[in-house]
């Protein structure tokens, strides 16, 4: 009997690695894992990988968590609880729960999958898509899956093209003109150039496609290897490059763009500087990342809040926002907001000025505060008259100041500042 053809994503599960500490985000990850960090006014970082999977047609997903996972798990339960098992849809949250041995948490990215082999088996899929849960991008995974199947690869690795000078922060690869990977090096000091373009390097996005039967055998063999670190980039991918067929898939070929000439947008917002810049970029006239694209929406948990409100219209006490994004539930009361991004429920008060500020949900900015180039953590209350972003030496006494002069403020920092007054 003839079987109707189905999209490859219908025979695929997405396994999202979301256990990352995110230590370069400093105090922003004191209470949450990096994939649970807020981004873009309403969403969290992990929503991008999950939305890409959903929009691509994947309806079976698993999320491996480890570090400070509570806010991430709560977000999954609130915002991603629409999968229905009776429709063959599943979203499993897989905390490191010592399922294999009492002293064994997830030892590496590959081990996170190995410890859940039985759960992946139960999904009855042909392909497994391994995703990092901590990057901002839009990508149609069906196109990568199609290349994987057509090429007969053992693994297909999602790749970015990056300047060679910046490539030491990534896993990088040498490829042939046909895209076959001939070497895979984890964060090398001297990255190789590309064929025909020696100043640029192919870097791994931490996205891999495998046939599940092949990956299953590889994982079980790796688990028995005492010399392995049980990591995809450090162990499994180099092994396949040496002994099998590894192919590179260029992100440029499956990036979802809001217009044909738009650049391929991908960001690792893993530092305070990068996090601040990527959020502020969204306030531009035509941002590279289009959050308004209804053809490829970013799904998330949306709180039920009233619209944003702007009040007072007097000289020097006017509730206004210019070149900014202001989320629902915000009250801009007599505050001047410029080139800033305010998340849900931020309240500002009279005579305050916000310039290039990223304020996470439910932050409160009291009267006459002046803030510039600042990230405010969730729920922080900025005291009356506080000035930040004008005197780096003074800022650094109390707050986290980056090399470029951006300032991160958390409530414990404010408490120390207040106690010294």
From TrEMBL:
It is an enzyme of class 2 (transferase). The keyword ATP-binding applies. It comes from the Bacteria. Keywords: ATP-binding, Carbohydrate metabolism, Glycogen biosynthesis, Glycogen metabolism, Nucleotide-binding, Nucleotidyltransferase, Transferase. Pathway: Glycan biosynthesis; glycogen biosynthesis. Its EC number is 2.7.7.27. It catalyses: alpha-D-glucose 1-phosphate + ATP + H(+) = ADP-alpha-D-glucose + diphosphate. The record marks 66, 105 as: Could play a key role in the communication between the regulatory and the substrate sites. Alpha-D-glucose 1-phosphate binds at residues 106, 171, 186-187, 204. Residues 14-282 form the Nucleotidyl transferase domain. One of its GO terms (biological process) is glycogen biosynthetic process. PROSITE patterns: ADP_GLC_PYROPHOSPH_1, ADP_GLC_PYROPHOSPH_2, ADP_GLC_PYROPHOSPH_3. Residues 306-409 form the Glucose-1-phosphate adenylyltransferase/Bifunctional protein GlmU-like C-terminal hexapeptide domain. GO terms for molecular function: ATP binding; glucose-1-phosphate adenylyltransferase activity. Gene3D superfamilies: Hexapeptide repeat proteins, Spore Coat Polysaccharide Biosynthesis Protein SpsA, Chain A. PANTHER family: GLUCOSE-1-PHOSPHATE ADENYLYLTRANSFERASE (PTHR43523:SF2), GLUCOSE-1-PHOSPHATE ADENYLYLTRANSFERASE-RELATED (PTHR43523). Homotetramer. Belongs to the bacterial/plant glucose-1-phosphate adenylyltransferase family. Involved in the biosynthesis of ADP-glucose, a building block required for the elongation reactions to produce glycogen. Catalyzes the reaction between ATP and alpha-D-glucose 1-phosphate (G1P) to produce pyrophosphate and ADP-Glc. This is Glucose-1-phosphate adenylyltransferase.
